[in-house]
Amino acid sequence: MYKPHSKGNTVLEVHLWFKSSLTCTEHPGERSAITNEIFCRLLGIAADRRVTEPDVILSASDIDRLTKALERLNKYEPVQYITGITEFDGIPIHVRPGVLIPRPETEELVRWVNGHLHDQLNDRIRHGTILDMGTGSGCIAIALASRFSGNRIKACDISKVSLEVAKHNALLNKVDINFFICDLMKDNTSELSPSSLGCIVSNPPYVTESDKSEMARNVLDYEPGEALFVPENDPLIFYRQIAKKAFEWLIPGGCVFLEINEKLSGETMHLFESRGFADIACRRDIHDKDRFIRARKPEQ
Ligand code: GLN
Questions:
Q1: Which ligand 1 atom sits nearest the alpha carbon of residue 223?
Q2: Residue 3 — left, alpha, or beta (φ > 0 → left; ψ -120 to 50 → alpha)?
Q3: First CA to last CA across the chain, in angstroms?
């Protein structure tokens, strides 16, 4: 509980109190980052203003909002669910419980697709329709739509909540995306016809039961399991289905780009090879882990 200071609640004092009361992380850098994010998003006080105007007095309702946020943070709730917003590839993305929080690694997948389409000589693929399978917050589809205004972008998800948030994010970022509900595991979508897509991107669930021991409480306790977890005995369940659908929907020469489980890069590449894909490549993420693959549907 914050005890108001005799001189009033200056932003400097309250900021120090907030940071030192955060028990959800032991890293000082992370405590500062979370505190700055909360001050910026909930109170509209960015770090530079705190430095230039340290004596600004916070109101009782500001302190109340901070106290409630602190309680949630100390129960390991992700800061992005408290502020309701995050940034992905330089664009604002709204999130809420039930929707996976975009990860910085996934920005690299967007950059890979971006480079691939820029270098593409086949005009049908270069300007072709892009599909994001399992779009969640819409982050991949929206980041691509902001880079490729000429391409049609489609995005699907099994979750109604995610699709609502994704549609809202598309409006927020002023991009036009065709969203539709779809269960990847069922072959029932009438939204797509054979050989109609230039490119497919996906970050499907890939975390196994045994990977859970390495994961943080804020992910395990708060993020949607259906966007993260796969059965231990069948971790490539979504990739098999994506390989099948991608082979059907891609224009010959078109590619599928995927985020993957770093422990299963060999198996995932082999899966796509066995389903007829060519030019299979793997890329590492910022943490030097095998994190993405690309596979091309052969020309004939
Ligand atoms: N990389 C995410 C995590 O570690 C998982 C994303 C996914 O399953 N697609 O939380």
A1: 10
A2: beta
A3: 67
Of the CA atoms within 13 Å of residue 103, those in its CB half-sphere come to: 16
| Sequential pLDDT tens for the chain (300 residues) | 666 555 578 999 999 999 999 999 989 999 999 999 999 999 999 988 888 888 889 999 999 999 999 999 999 999 999 999 999 999 999 999 999 999 999 999 999 999 999 999 899 999 999 999 999 999 999 999 999 887 799 999 999 999 999 999 999 999 999 999 999 888 777 778 999 999 999 999 999 989 999 999 999 999 999 999 999 999 999 999 999 999 999 999 999 999 999 999 999 999 999 999 999 999 999 999 999 999 999 997
| CA-nearest residue, atom 1 of ligand 1 | 103
Pairing of strands 250-259, 178-181: unpaired
- Which atom of ligand 1 is the closest one to the Cα of 204? 9
- Look-up: residue for tokens 């100390």? 74
Backbone φ and ψ for 155, nearest 5 degrees, come out as -150, 140
Residue with tokens 């960015």: 46
